[in-house]
Design a protein that fits this description.
TIM Barrel, 2 domains, disordered C terminus
Length: about 400
């Protein structure tokens, strides 16, 4: 495992951080036993930075991380969690939220504490409520060690927040598709120039830059003299920037964890060759041509008042265009979101209320995009769903009759 240094404190952090927003799932919740095994395996392999938040997994992420860090693991790591601005009405709310987080995480201090998902509007709200005095107080009391913020907004707002306080670190979305989105490369360099450690989230765009990848993109990767997975290419592009301190990966698969750990043992800054960088640029151009929606699957838009699975609809809509040879994506869309498997959750239910767009860190015009998804993916949904459901009903009845016949025959 390689490590990089927090400029203002000298703290040594693993270049690979464990993001706890997408822990393995089971029966609609977190698969706790598996998640704990994965977290501890990563720590045993050198990871010492773990990132969570109250919003992740509907409040369960902090709880599971707290359990995973028992038995001596807490002393080996730095915990990062976040203050959700949408739950803050007055200064007193900040105190009880932090107290609750400390109890849930089963610790007496949080190493890296962030104001969650800052933009111009949320920053102005929190500043008026006295958040900087709260951070000073929490640090003086030893409840938090380092203060920072995560960001989803404009470059100008990012610079304003960076300059407003003596932060130790910040967290931005950054990958080879987002060089000029949100804080982007300019923001990365600006923060580093102010001696802030920079933690990177969404290095693979919510997994969209990892495998499987479209044929047009795989052909570009396959021509590289050094063979790497799409995920490793994406992570190495971020690590190639010396201004980056930690790259967070939402790892929930044992193979992917080990693959990322291996890459984190050799991904030095400025180690990619000019040929490597040119190859990644060609991949970027191809993705931008093929991809319809820049959704990372973060889930901030959820729950939808109309019951739409917004990230799920976007994922299959993108897949339909990224993998044109795969004729099954519309079928999967209809079966998954049309009520055949699970609840009805298709894009055509959109009420155009705009709640999702206000919550989206990517600032996507989700209601308008829902119209595109509906037009492209739902032409047969009102016909196909009753047909499929009828077929499933008939198959179920036939199975029951056969089972009954088998039982009667066994008694002859």
């Amino acid at each position: 495992m390689l490590f990089r240094t927090v400029p203002k404190t000298g703290d040594r952090l693993s270049i690979l951080g464990f993001g706890c927003m997408r822990l393995p799932s089971k029966n609609g919740g977190i698969d706790e036993a598996r998640a704990i095994r994965q977290i501890r395996h990563a720590i045993d392999s050198g990871v010492n930075y773990l990132d969570t938040a109250p919003a992740y997994h509907l409040g369960k992420s902090e709880q599971v991380l707290g359990k995973a860090l028992q038995d001596g693991y807490r002393e080996k790591v730095r915990i990062a969690t976040k203050l959700p601005h949408w739950e803050v009405r007055d200064a007193g709310d900040m105190e009880w939220i932090l107290a609750k987080q400390l109890a849930t995480l089963q610790t007496d201090h949080i190493d890296y504490y962030l104001l969650h998902s800052m933009s111009k509007e949320s920053w102005e709200k929190m500043a008026k409520l006295g958040v900087l005095a709260f951070l000073d107080r929490a640090k003086s009391e030893g409840k938090i060690v380092n203060a920072g913020f995560s960001f989803h907004g404009t470059l100008s707002a990012f610079k304003e927040i960076v300059d407003a306080y003596d932060w130790q670190f910040c967290q931005i979305q950054y990958n080879f598709l987002d060089e000029n989105n949100q804080a982007g490369t300019q923001g990365l360099r600006y923060a580093a120039g102010k001696n802030l450690a920079v933690m990177v989230m969404e290095p693979l765009r919510g997994g969209n830059l990892a495998g499987p990848v479209p044929d047009d993109i795989q052909r570009i990767w396959d021509k590289a003299p050094i063979k790497r997975s799409a995920a490793e290419w994406g992570l190495r592009w971020v690590w190639n920037h010396p201004e980056v301190t930690v790259v967070l990966s939402g790892m929930n698969n044992e193979y992917h964890i080990d693959e990322n750990l291996k890459a984190a043992g050799s991904a030095l800054p400025e180690s990619l060759t000019p040929d490597d960088l040119a190859r990644i640029s060609r991949v970027k151009e191809t993705y931008l041509r093929l991809m319809k929606v820049g959704c990372t699957g973060c889930g901030y838009c959820m729950p939808c008042p109309a019951g739409i699975d917004i990230p799920g609809c976007f994922a299959l809509y993108n897949a339909h265009h990224l993998f044109p040879k795969d004729r099954s994506t519309r079928f999967h869309y209809i079966s998954r979101h049309g009520g055949i498997i699970g609840d009805v959750s298709y894009a055509g239910l959109c009420l155009q209320c705009g709640k999702c767009a206000k919550a989206c860190p990517q600032h996507l015009p989700i209601p308008e995009l829902m119209k595109d998804v509906k037009a492209d993916m739902e032409g047969m949904i009102r016909v196909a769903v009753p047909v499929f459901k009828g077929g499933l009903w008939c198959m179920n009845k036939i199975a029951k009759v056969r089972a009954l016949f088998s039982r009667e025959k066994s008694h002859d």
